[in-house]
Design goal:
This protein has about 375 residues and is of the alpha/beta class. The protein folds into 2 domains: about 190 residues, Glycogen Phosphorylase B (Rossmann fold, 3-Layer(aba) Sandwich), CATH 3.40.50; about 160 residues, Glycogen Phosphorylase B (Rossmann fold), CATH 3.40.50.2000. The chain is built from 13 helices and 13 strands. The strands form 2 sheets. A 7-stranded parallel beta sheet has the order 3-2-1-4-5-6-7, sandwiched between helices. It has a 6-stranded parallel beta sheet with strand order 10-9-8-11-12-13, sandwiched between helices. The longest helix is centred in the N-terminal third of the chain and has 18 residues. The radius of gyration is 21 Å and the shape is globular.
Length: about 375
C-alpha cells in the first residue's frame, strides 16, 4: 500500500481543500493510505473538514498557520520533520504556498523519497509587493531542486510557472479539478427562506473576501445595475468592510458561504468573478455544474473552463465587466442557453475520473524503480 502524507497550510473552505478531499475519497482505498498534516483553521474562512468526511488521519499543527513568522516556521519545520520520520511515508504531497515550502523541506530532511507539490495558483502577481514577490520566486526556484514532480492546476498557470523557472516542463503536469453534479433547489423557495426578492435577476459572488478577489469591484456593479439584486456568499479578512459597503446599497445582500451548493446556486441567476488573479476558479466550475452562466475577468485559467459567448462572458476591464453583467441581466434567453450549455459540457472539460487517474498514475510511476 502506498502511504501519502499531504501537508497544507489550512483546510479552509476553498479550492485546495475541496480538491484534496475529492482526491483522498476518490482513490482506491485498498492501494492508498493518506495522512493530512494541516495548520489551524482561520475562523473567518471556515473549516471544510467540519462539513465533509475524509478517509484520512488528520493531524493539526497550530504553528503551521497562514501568517508568516520565523519562529513559527522553524517550529512547523521541526514538528513536520519529526512526524515524517515517525510516519515514514512513501510520498509527501504538499499544497498551498507556505506548506509547500515547509513541507517539502521537512520531507527532504526526513529523507522521504518522493516529494510532490501542487500549485493551486501562483503568487507571481497581485498578492505581494515586488520585493516580497521576488523573494518568493527565488525561494520557489531553489525548491524546484528538491521537488520530484509539480502538479499545476490549469495549463495557463503551468505555462506561467515554467516561464518563471519555478517548475520544469519535464517534471510538471497540468491538472484540472473534477466537476461534480449539482442539482439546484427550488429558487423561489430558497430566496424566500433568505429574505431575498423573487421577482428580479440575482447576481452572485462566491468566494473569500480578500483583496485579490476584488469584492469592491463586485459592489461597484450594484450601483450601475439598480434593477438587479446582488448577493455575496463568503467570508474572510475583509468581511466587515464588505458588510459596511454593502449597507450603502439597497440592492446588495451579504451572506455566509454555505457548503450546500444546491442552495447557493439556486439563489442566483448568474455568477460573477471579479478577481485580479486566479488559478482555475472552483466557484465557476460549480456554477457551470449547476447550470448557472458566468461573467468573469479574463485571468489565470478561467478560459479553460469558460467558453466566451457559449457558457459565459469573459472581459478584460471594469467597463466591459459592467456591460457584460448588464447584458446577461437583461437577456433571460441568453442566460438560459449559456447555463444549459455549461452544465452539459463542464464534465467533459473537468472530469473527476481524469483528475483521480492523473494522481494515481503519477504516484505509481514515481515509486516504480
Amino acid at each position: 500500500m502506498i502511504h501519502v502524507v499531504h501537508v497544507l497550510t489550512r483546510t479552509n473552505i476553498g479550492g485546495p481543500s475541496v480538491m484534496l478531499v475529492d482526491l483522498i475519497n476518490g482513490l482506491d482505498a485498498s492501494r492508498f493510505r493518506h495522512t493530512i498534516i494541516r495548520g489551524t483553521a482561520v475562523e473567518a474562512e471556515g473549516d471544510y473538514l467540519l462539513h465533509h468526511q475524509v478517509a484520512s488521519e488528520v493531524i493539526t499543527l497550530p504553528a503551521l498557520r497562514r501568517s508568516i513568522g520565523v519562529v513559527a516556521e522553524l517550529r512547523s519545520l521541526w514538528h513536520i520533520t519529526k512526524l515524517l520520520r515517525e510516519l515514514r511515508p512513501d510520498i509527501v504531497h504538499t499544497h498551498m504556498a507556505k506548506a509547500g515550502i515547509v513541507g517539502r523541506l521537512a520531507a527532504f530532511l526526513s529523507r522521504t523519497p518522493i516529494r510532490i507539490h501542487t500549485f493551486h495558483g501562483h503568487l507571481l502577481h497581485g498578492y505581494f509587493s515586488d520585493v516580497v514577490g521576488g523573494l518568493f520566486i527565488r525561494i520557489e526556484r531553489l525548491f524546484r531542486v528538491i521537488t520530484s514532480h509539480s502538479l499545476v492546476v490549469g495549463s495557463a498557470t503551468r505555462r506561467d510557472l515554467i516561464a518563471a523557472r519555478i517548475v520544469r516542463e519535464s517534471s510538471s503536469t497540468a491538472v484540472l479539478p473534477g466537476a461534480k453534479s449539482i442539482v439546484r433547489q427550488d429558487p423561489v423557495a430558497v430566496r424566500k427562506m433568505h429574505g431575498l426578492p423573487v421577482d428580479v435577476v440575482i447576481v452572485g459572488f462566491v468566494g473569500r473576501f480578500t483583496n485579490i478577489k476584488r469584492p469592491d469591484r463586485f459592489l461597484s456593479l450594484a450601483s450601475g445595475i439598480p434593477n438587479a439584486h446582488f448577493v455575496m456568499f463568503g467570508n474572510g479578512p475583509l468581511r466587515e468592510e464588505v458588510q459596511r459597503q454593502a449597507e450603502t446599497h439597497d440592492n446588495v445582500s451579504v451572506m455566509d458561504f454555505s457548503t450546500d451548493l444546491t442552495r447557493v446556486f439556486a439563489t442566483v441567476d448568474l455568477m460573477v468573478l471579479t478577481s485580479d488573479n486566479e488559478g482555475v476558479p472552483l466557484s465557476l466550475m460549480e456554477a457551470a455544474a449547476a447550470g448557472v452562466p458566468v461573467v468573469s475577468m479574463r485571468v489565470g485559467g478561467v478560459e479553460e473552463i469558460v467558453e466566451h459567448g457559449v457558457t459565459g462572458l469573459l472581459v478584460d476591464n471594469d467597463a466591459e465587466l459592467g456591460h457584460a453583467v448588464a447584458q446577461l441581466v437583461h437577456n433571460e434567453s441568453m442566460r438560459a442557453s449559456m447555463g444549459a450549455t455549461a452544465q452539459r459540457t463542464i464534465h467533459e472539460r473537468c472530469s473527476l475520473t481524469k483528475y483521480l487517474s492523473t494522481h494515481d498514475e503519477l504516484y505509481t510511476r514515481l515509486l516504480t524503480p
